[in-house]
Amino acid sequence: MTEPGSDEATGRLWLAETLWRLGGLQFGDFSIGRTVRNSPVYLNAKLLISRPDALKRTVALIHDEVELGMTRRNRTVDLFDGIAGVPIGGLYLATGLAMRMDRPLLYVRPPRPADEDTAPHIEGIYRPGERVLVVDDLATGGGSLVETIIALRDAGLMVSDAVVLMDREQGAMRRLEGMGVRLHAILSLEVTLRYLESSGLIGGEDFERAVAYIHREGEPRSEFD
User: Fold this and answer.
1) Domain extent listing, the chain
2) 3-state secondary structure of 188
3) What is the DSSP letter of 7?
4) What is the pLDDT of residues 94-140, one digit of tens each?
5) Does domain 11-217 have CATH number 3.40.50.2300?
6) How far apart are CA 184 and CA 197, in angstroms?
7) What is the pTM of this model?
8) Which residues fall within 8 angstroms of residue 28, CB to CB, at 6 or more apart?
9) Measured between alpha carbons, how far is 184 from 121 in angstroms, rounded to an integer?
10) For a disulfide at 81, which of 17, 107, 130, 203, Cβ 3.0-4.6 Å?
């Protein structure tokens, strides 16, 4: 068991413990956005911006995941020209990753109600035909990811991969697969909860309610998943 306050948690599990210690994991009854309804667990990865050391280490985790996918013999991440952050949650991660990998940064700015042109606007310099990696903090039903991917493709950019810190396992992966986009998650919500429960950082009742919610609301799994 990892003792609270220890440095034994490494790699991806370090991220799970860090989010918990920052207060980014809460239990209660939450309905957020278009997908999350009466969830017993809430995640706020944006708190990482208040800890530069944790943010740098998080970006390094994403970087290592992406580099590994691009260098495998059977490549699981396509080579890309730029990085596109999903506002707001993915933009700070995409900015850090773009600086670390020396790639151009883009983001899709939604139209304002007063704009005559209702089409989303892409901030940044790009050329049609270039490939971009999409970055976000959380994936739930995939709505924000899908909107970003559609806007990028409408502008002539290619998207085949998206990376997120946490997959809440509520449909995003299947939805993106249907668009020909692979979703890469540093952690899943269930893995995060199981690690924190086994480390004694969260109670059994909160853990059981949250895992039951994931299994009830989550994506269908096959024996091959």
Assistant:
1) 11-217
2) strand
3) S
4) 999 999 999 999 999 876 666 655 677 899 999 999 999 999 998 88
5) no
6) 24
7) 0.86
8) 40, 42
9) 25
10) 130
